[in-house]
Write a structure and sequence with these properties.
Blueprint: E1 7-12, H1 15-26, E2 33-39, H2 46-54, H3 56-59, H4 69-73, E3 77-79, H5 86-95, E4 99-103, H6 111-116, E5 121-125, H7 138-143, E6 150-157, E7 167-174, H8 181-190, H9 192-203, H10 226-229, H11 239-248, E8 256-260, E9 263-274, E10 286-289, E11 295-299, E12 302-311, E13 314-315
Parallel strand pairs: 1-2, 1-4, 2-3, 4-5
Antiparallel strand pairs: 5-6, 6-7, 8-9, 9-12, 10-11, 11-12, 12-13
Length: 329
């Protein structure tokens, strides 16, 4: 058994794990060491890895395959259907970690796990708590109008609730104006470079008191599926609401979608031009185009100017698809 008191076990996946490992290498002469990573089985990573591959031009250095950690850092990576399992707990026991850190762990840690590793387990959650508990908050923060605002990620103790434990440290970031989910994601991921050192500093301070969360302010939003939730209803939303909706399902995702007859079209980029608008019956009709051959869609309170579309994940010139007078549904 390894008796070092500065071992760390990470539960989870993604670029946040890499950024945390890198931050520890620079923290107090590498006083803390990540000794193991436990993640969900490889086949459950495939969707994320495929999206990072298809959108590698926009992910940049915020894409990471957790299974590369062994070659990159010499850290063993274990696959587990459930980190609460006897096998996973035994792996962690043998390492005897000082802390266990959840970074995008897919399992809810159960009471028995938390009891075995009492006061050792905390989570890094890069959306503000107690608002935005749970996962997949990038799109929801766009839908809820947080463009241009300052938000924060935090490290917090894990209890039997979902992101309800006392807050150990915070790191602030700004959500860019007119940002896509990938932009919010990158802003959030950047906090991983700083949160763990801040948390360790606080945990090593005998006078530190964690911050209680205000339950009355808590919110939780479900995961979104673009193929199901991303259908555009031109008559239902105002222009501003539609702009947020389209951005919220855009990069790195496939994009909010509509149909021209039976053809599914994903809209990735657009602009709302406010104006007097049109009768509700006209919403969705292709009414014109600008000098750059970007097509205009009628809305109740203005015009939606389409700037980029894809069909079957391939970018298509608008004039190959759109026809004046036709209606998008």
């Amino acid at each position: 058994m390894n008796n070092s008191n500065n071992n760390i076990v990470i539960l989870g996946h993604g670029i946040g794990v890499k950024f945390v490992i890198d931050s520890l290498l620079l923290y107090k002469n590498s006083e803390y060491k990540v000794s193991a990573i436990i993640t969900h089985p490889f086949h459950l990573h495939k969707e994320d890895l495929e999206m990072m591959k298809n959108r590698k031009d926009i992910y940049g250095d915020c894409a990471y395959n957790i299974f590369n950690a062994t070659d990159d850092y010499g850290i063993p990576v274990y696959e587990s259907e459930d980190v609460n399992s006897t096998e996973s707990i035994e792996i962690i026991r043998k390492i005897n970690p000082k802390y266990i850190i959840s970074i995008g762990c897919r399992n809810i840690l159960k009471k028995e796990f938390l009891s075995i590793f009492k006061n050792k387990v905390f989570n890094v959650h890069t959306a503000p708590l107690p608002e935005y508990r749970g996962a997949a908050n990038d799109s929801w923060m766009i839908l809820n109008g947080l463009w241009g605002t300052e938000q924060y990620g935090c490290a917090h103790y894990i209890d039997t609730g979902i992101d309800t434990g006392d807050i150990i440290a915070k790191c602030f970031y700004k959500i860019p104006n007119l940002s896509y989910p990938i932009d919010v994601f990158k802003a959030r991921m950047n906090t991983y470079k700083y949160l763990l050192p801040l948390a360790l500093d606080n945990l090593n301070n005998p006078e530190f008191i964690p911050e209680k969360q205000d339950y009355e302010k808590s919110t939780f939003f479900p995961r979104l599926k673009t193929v199901v939730d991303g259908r555009i209803n031109f008559a239902e939303f105002t222009g501003v609401e539609l702009l947020k909706f389209i951005y919220a399902f855009s990069y790195p995702y496939d994009g909010a979608h509509c149909y021209l007859d039976d053809l599914k079209i994903n809209i990735l980029e657009c602009e709302f031009i406010p104006g007097d608008g049109f009768h509700k019956f006209t919403t969705g009709i292709i009414i014109g185009k600008d000098k750059n051959k970007n097509y205009k869609i009628a809305l109740r309170d203005g015009v939606l100017l389409i700037k980029k579309i894809e069909v079957d994940k391939q970018q298509i010139p608008q004039n190959k698809i759109f026809k004046l007078g036709k209606r998008l549904t």
